[in-house]
Design brief:
Helix content is 77%, strand content 0%. With 405 residues, it is an all-alpha fold.
Length: 405
Amino acid sequence: MTILRVDDLSFAVTAFFMKLIGLWFADGRVERWLRSVTLFFTMWSLLFGIYLQTTIMYHSLDDVENLIFGLLNLLSVLVPLIKLLALLPRKKKLFGLIAYMVRNFLKADYDDFETSILTTCKRKCSFFVCGSVCFTELTIVSYVCAPLLVNLFKNESERVLPFKMYLNVPIQATPYFEIAYITQALALCPVGFSYFSLDNVLCIINLHVAGQFRILQYRLSDKYSGQVQNGLDQKSDLYLKDNAPDVFKSYIRQHQALITYCNELQEVFGIIVLAQVMTFSMLICLDGFQVLLLDLIQRKVIFFFHLLTTVCQLIMFSYSCDCIIRESVNLATAAFSGPWLLLPSSKGIDNLKKDFIMLIMRSNKPCYISGLGFFIVSLETSTRVITTAGSYFTLLQQTQSNIDS
């Protein structure tokens, strides 16, 4: 779609990986067919990953280390599967949110200060998106390459796969080993792409919504303040004295549009946020166990990058959602800082002041993203998640010590 051609690194990277998992806009029947095939392969990879990890856990009931290894990998596959299953019925709404953001946020007309706000949003998005992509890709590469390095020092009968497979064939022998290795490596890619792609979409939308609230603050507080205070409104074609009611109503409509947009965003991503936040503590705990308490170097490397990926996602989630809360509440302060209460009294201005009161009252109730209403995601969420992960880790460490003793 032509409207989606945006000069923005984070948007381009996210669109690329969304295409690779089969969830993006399609022009024409050929593209729609390719998206369907790609989505089918992504779903197959996730189900294949669940099969692998459940069999590993089943055969490792008496081995705590391998059991935790399988559980951690199972969670890493289940979360993206839940995200996709939750999003598929809401795919059209997601595409509508993205198209609206591009049309009304990224391609709108701005003055210099508003453009600087948008540029800041793009920089933040690029930082988070590129960090999430890099850490996840390093995790995938570690999963694939670590066994290759281990196999260099072993004979054919001792070769290992990224994930154990329990089949009635000599899996270490050629060509079964090569087929299994390539199959697992190919399945890892869409699992990794689906692990971060939807989170990146939410982060980009959240930060741009927060940027729109910041732009609205500027329009309410600073854009016309100089004209009223310096008496320049009499010389302006759109002097604020006569046009203030219409200008203020346009800002109210913009505020209402942002509130509606946040509600639709909550409807689309509510289940995804709930699933992701509820598993963050467990993922961080199990990653820490693999990195700190195990002696296998290859697993330490893999789950070090996996831990960085999880922490990056947690910060990205909590920070972007917190920005919406803070910027939506700051509208009240911005409105009080503007020229609206300094305008000379008239019938139109008196009506404006009533609308002004309604804007202040509505701004006191922040916009937010929640996990289906169970909790509101903010920076405090990351603190609670890390605290809970620390408690889980302490309990797991004590359990491991008791087993070893």
